[in-house]
């Protein structure tokens, strides 16, 4: 779970960096791939631990459709707690975006 959280915040942070920063082109795709891989792996391992029956090549399906699979899986397996996790991730991304915009505006005005 710590890896998922770290890669999520790395991806959000990488999206906020200006294009002129050297190496930013390498950070964002790596953070996105890391987040997708860890999330898909967690869903597959968690479903195995719960003893759920899975279709053939379930891990590939989850990896390609992670934006749909993760919220559906969380709500299906954890009910309101899963919805709260999704809502927390959305609010965290929004607050990071807002803080970045505020600091960029303040720096620009000086």
Key terms:
110 residues; mainly alpha; 83% helix; elongated
How helical, in percent, are the residues? over 70%
Structural class: mainly alpha
Order of helices and strands: HHHHH
Question: What's the number of domains?
Answer: 1
H/I helix tally = 5
Q: How would you state the average pLDDT, rounded? A: 79
Radius of gyration: 17 Å
Oligomer: single chain
Low-confidence stretches: none
The biggest beta sheet is recorded as: none
Percent strand equals under 5%
Number of strands: 0
Q: How far is the N terminus from the C terminus?
A: 40 Å
Shape: elongated
Description:
- The protein has 110 residues and is mainly alpha-helical.
- It has one domain.
- It has five helices and no strands.
- Helix 2 runs antiparallel to helix 3.
- The mean pLDDT is 79.
Question: How do the helices and strands line up, and which of them pair or pack?
Answer:
Layout: H1 2-16, H2 24-49, H3 58-64, H4 66-78, H5 80-109
Helix pairs in contact: 1-2, 1-5, 2-3, 3-4, 4-5
Please provide a brief summary of the model.
It is built from five helices and no strands.
């Amino acid at each position: 779970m710590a890896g998922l959280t770290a890669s999520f915040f790395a991806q959000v942070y990488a999206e906020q960096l200006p294009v002129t920063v050297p190496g930013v082109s390498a950070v964002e795709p790596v953070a996105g791939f890391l987040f997708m891989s860890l999330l898909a792996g967690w869903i597959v391992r968690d479903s195995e631990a719960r003893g759920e029956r899975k279709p053939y090549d379930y891990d590939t399906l989850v990896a390609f459709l992670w934006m749909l699979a993760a919220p559906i899986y969380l709500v299906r397996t954890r009910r309101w707690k899963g919805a709260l996790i999704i809502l927390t991730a959305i609010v965290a991304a929004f607050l990071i975006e807002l803080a970045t915009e505020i600091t960029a505006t303040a720096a620009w005005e000086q």
